[in-house]
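From the pipeline queue, job 12 of 40. The input is one protein chain; the requested action is below.

Action: predict structure.
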Amino acid sequence: WDSTVKVWKVTPAGISKSPVAFWMEHEEGVKCVDVSADGRMATSGSLDGTMITWDLRSKACHRTYRPHADAVNGVHFTPDSQRIVTCSSDGFCKAYELDGAETFAVDSGEELMCVLAYELDG
């Protein structure tokens, strides 16, 4: 694991030889990443318990969250690209708005490795 997040451009012709963005904001290794359905944002989770959102248009850090006391094992945007759900070795599953507001937290009482799925209602 290392603390970098890299983004390559993918087209029908192939993948760019070099990353189009390269970030080293996490203090420890990156464990997971996701890209929003609208393609505007990415998010990464790290061994240091942080989650970072990235603006893919400006190629800049959008926000750093400190949601967990242990490694973030999974991050996933909701289908509407408005929230991010995380799971962690600290046993919590949490959801955040892009503005940083926590919308829910559930303590499972055990380490969560994370498989995230959504039930779309209506």
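Job complete. The mean pLDDT is 86.
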